[in-house]
Amino acid sequence: EGRSPETHNHYRSAIKFLYKKVLKTIWDDDTVPAMKRERNLPAVLSCDEINAIIDATPNLKHKAIIATMYSSGLRVSEVVHLHYDDISRTNMTIHVRETKGRIDRYTILSQKNLDLLTEYWYKCGRPKDILFPSSWTGGYLDIASVNQFFKKSAKLAGITRHVSSHACRHSFASHLFESGTDIKYIQSLLGHVDPRSTDVYLHVSNKTLLGIRSPFDNPEGGES
What we know:
Elements: H1 5-22, H2 47-56, H3 60-72, H4 76-79, E1 87-88, E2 93-96, E3 105-108, H5 111-123, H6 143-156, H7 166-178, H8 183-190
Antiparallel strand pairs: 1-2, 2-3
Domain Tyr recombinase: 40-214
Keywords: DNA recombination
Pfam family, one: Phage_integrase
């Protein structure tokens, strides 16, 4: 009692090992069942809130990073590892290499975000390798710094509830589901290997990958 599901299951695994491997005793999983973890979802931001955060961001590089996370559904760790060659203007896709599951994927590139990335590229040193290099080291940006400036921009945009940069990715998925995009295509864009990771958005429709439009390209002021 009072223990988290993770702690409970850790203790349970240790006891199970003791019974089965050391004591050679039959173990019944139903006697001490594993606890299910609660799935605490990050806040979903509306299209208006996303645009307000981007508009409130004074630094052009930071603005482009936030727009890229939202418009393509990227994790923070993925956006900081993007390279110039990962952006395909021909196919309007982004090649995501540094993924959580270590499996490369392609996701959609918003025209609106491409325009912003182009502006950033021309005005901020025309980086040819790392797309968003650190101003201090020239290497990859620190994830903590992205979270820090995102929260600052959210505050400047007048958003009072707690939000993290991961809300961009979650909002991307939620807005696509609300617009009727098939769950299997959202799963592909997010890079979810396990379909259960995407079950929280469960809506079904009949769109194809080529017809998917980034929510960032929706008209200004859209509700979600």
